[in-house]
Amino acid sequence: MSPAVTGTAAGAVLALAALAFGFGGFLLTALFMGTGAVLGRAAQGTLDVGAVMDALRGKRSSP
User: Fold this and answer.
1) What sections of the chain are H helices per DSSP?
2) How many CA atoms lie within 13 A of 24 on its CB side?
3) Predicted pLDDT of residue 62
4) What is the mean pLDDT of residues 13-20?
5) 27: pLDDT strictly greater than 70
6) Which residues have a Cβ under 8 Å from the Cβ of 25 and sit 6 or more positions away?
7) Which long-range contacts link 49-55 to residues 24+ away (Cβ below 8 Å)?
8) Backbone angles phi, psi at 2, to 5 degrees
9) Contact residues for 21 (Cβ-Cβ < 8 A; gap 6+)
10) Residue 23 — pLDDT band, cuts 50, 70, 90?
């Protein structure tokens, strides 16, 4: 899928969650979508989880 299609689908899901469950449901859906994206990239091998954790802890900075 292209980034435009992916972004449109994500926007539609978030809009439906906001309409159906209010702002709390919108935030929870956004959190789950973000978590799923990170886990999917880690499983695919395009995200180095160790480097992300080091950056969050302040042990390594981006060049």
Assistant:
1) 3-44, 49-57
2) 1
3) 58
4) 93
5) yes
6) 17, 18
7) none
8) -75, 160
9) 28, 29
10) very high
Q: Which two tokens stand for residue 38?
A: 């990170």
CA proximity to 26, closest of 39, 17, 35: 17
31-36 average pLDDT score = 89
Scan for tokens 């435009």, then name that residue.
Answer: 4
- Token readout for 19 is 């309409």
Residue 47: pLDDT over 90: no
Residue type at 6 in one-letter notation: T
Buried b (16+ CB within 10 A) or exposed e, 8-34: eeeeeebeebbeeeeeeebeebeeeee
Residue 44: pLDDT over 80: yes
The owner of tokens 């695919």 is 44
